[in-house]
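Case study: Methyltransferase-domain-containing protein.
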Amino acid sequence: MGAQINPQVSRFCWQNLQVDPTPVFPDNELLREEEVQETIYKQVFSGDVPLRPPRRYQVKILKELVAKIESSIEDWDQHGISDNLTFALSQLLSQPLPSETDAAQQRDHVTYHLSLLQVPPTEVDPPHIHLLESRSLISASGTTGLRTWEAALHLGQYLCADPSSVKNRRVLELGTGTGYLAVLCAKYLGSDHVIASDGSDEVVNHLSESFLLNGLKGSSKITPMQLGWGHALAGTEVGGGDVDTVLGADITYDVSVIPALVATLEDLAGLFPASSVLIAATERNRATFERFLDVCGKRGFTVTHESYPILRRSEQNGPFYSDTTPIHICKLRK
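Here is what the predicted structure looks like once written out:
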């Protein structure tokens, strides 16, 4: 998506590729222009786009887009609606759509734009991460790890703004889920090696797809690993190597797992005394977050709250996430 594209149009396209439920449509003065309509078609809805959003989402957005274009036109001799957009909509409507229930359980392509990173000189496309995600809150198997959560996106922005805690370092991510942070560190932030760990075997099995989509399949820079919290690390790949930085995002939401999580952090601190720990926690429940801090304190951790405010939604250019719920980034040392 080239830099010459109007910022409103570029933002709208990236929001669509991220399957944002409330994308901001460009102003009417832009929408009525043929060049703008063709740009949106080519970037999001064309058959040449390899990893398009789910069909139900495309239908919803295209219907609204065509309606907004129609209402924006004051002179039909001068402006019109793109044939490509109307054809794309008719093609989508000609096929039966999955039910909302079925669609929620399906895994679909989601693309995250990394707006804080510069385009490398050898690359044409802006930095981005492709993932396959389930848009449901909890999958049919009971795991929450098949979608990327807000704290991972926010911690990713923090690391993009200052990658020093992961660059040229060996990184262990706990509760990696879709692998967003692990891929970010391995592909863009210069980590020496990343272990993407999770306690769910289903989640770990899906990580190979995340690596493939981002050009990391077979790479020595990243490794998937099943790791249950509260279990001894000696004899595992973690115990047998060095870890400089431990990452975790949205892994403190369940009060029942906090003791096991902190026990694992304590074990890691014992194995790697010089390592640093960064935990990003969305404060959905203040009592749960306070419980995490309390257990950390009792286990001898010093917790420092990093200052990194969430950008207002209107200022975000990707990735896009809620600005209404606090997200804490905590640095732990023992």
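For the exam, be able to explain this: The chain has two domains: 7-97, 122-333.
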